[in-house]
Amino acid sequence: MAPGTYVFRVKASNNDGLYNQQGASIQLTVLPPWWRAPWAYILYAILAALVVWALVRYRSRQLRKANQLLERNVALRTEEVIRQKLEIETQRNNLADTLTELRDTQHQLIQREKLASLGELTAGIAHEIQNPLNFVNNFSDLSVDVVTELEDEQKRQQRDADLENELLDTLKQNLQKISHHGNRASSIVQGMLEHSRMGSGERYPVDLNALVDEYIRLAYYGQRVRNPLFTCALVQKLQPDLGKVDLVGQDISRVLLNLFNNAFYAVNQRLKQANDDFKPTVTVQTRIVDKAVEIQVSDNGTGISDTMQQKIFQPFFTTKPSGEGTGLGLSLSYDIIKAHGGSLTVESREGEGCTFIIRLPNGG
């Protein structure tokens, strides 16, 4: 029964069936159970407040612990970030130093490659100039002998006019040959000066056929100076109407010298391995193809494998034994031709030979 106040009313009758109209009543009060008593609710409120206070206190302590942990993590992370920053700065400085060293090394290697080319070129030039000088010296000595013989003949009482005329003709021929070979030596020097005067990168009209002819001989004589027993057939297929092309002559000369030297090296290597029937041959061809000037340098040497061909123009890559090449010759040549707006490609079959193809825009 729910808590509350109740009134119990009773009506009774007698034996005759007459009811007492007023009846009787009793008032009853039902009290609630103790857990629903007012003091119980007060207790509940106090307990609830204690629970809330405990939860708040617990949560606050957890938050403080979390904050302290976060602060420690942040401090550790900050120290780690600072340490990583210092490491990165140190590595960056080390990389900068390494890059500087690499650039210095690259510059030294490039200079070494240029000096090596210069040495090979100088050897060829010396041979080229030595030949006409030898002729000049020989014909000068012969002319001195002819003059001496002519003087002796003129001192005789009975002079032989026919002999004197013959000696004079011989002297004249000798002087003509001296003049011819002297002019040849002068033209070689003039050509070198012409090529070196444009070292700043300025383009000017160049007779490509003459340049090719000159530098294949210079490269060949340079090889002969280093190895007097070396011989090689030189084949030139130069298109006569090629004309002049606007080029940086000194740069293109360096490219040609490098390609010719590589060709002579390849045929010489195969000569060491081949039988007596092998005839080293280096061929150079010039022609006009699709409004471009093409130079092909071919050899029947050792050739280049497909794997090597993919790397042949990379800096510092070389197929030569250690100490015989810097690996920069073809890389520099590739860059020079590219700077001219052209292309440098290679076609080769291992063991059969190799062809390097230069294509330059006609007119620069």
Automatic annotation (TrEMBL):
**Would the keyword Membrane turn up in this protein's UniProt record?**
yes
Keyword Transmembrane helix belongs to the record: yes
**Segments traversing the membrane:** 38-56
What is the catalytic activity of this protein? Answer: ATP + protein L-histidine = ADP + protein N-phospho-L-histidine
Enzyme Commission numbers on file: 2.7.13.3
Q: Name one GO molecular function term.
A: phosphorelay sensor kinase activity
Keywords, A to Z, come to:
Membrane, Phosphoprotein, Transmembrane, Transmembrane helix
Which of the seven top EC classes does this enzyme belong to? transferase
Q: Which SMART domains match?
A: HATPase_c, HisKA
What InterPro entries does this protein map onto? HATPase_C_sf (IPR036890), HATPase_dom (IPR003594), His_kinase_dom (IPR005467), HisK_dim/P_dom (IPR003661), HisK_dim/P_sf (IPR036097), Ig-like_fold (IPR013783), Sig_transdc_His_kin-like_C (IPR004358)
**A Pfam family per the record:** HATPase_c
What SUPFAM superfamilies does this protein's entry cite? Answer: ATPase domain of HSP90 chaperone/DNA topoisomerase II/histidine kinase, Homodimeric domain of signal transducing histidine kinase
| Domain Histidine kinase per the UniProt entry, residue ranges | 124-364
Q: State the name under which the record lists this protein.
A: histidine kinase
Q: Which species does the entry assign this protein to?
A: Spirosoma rhododendri
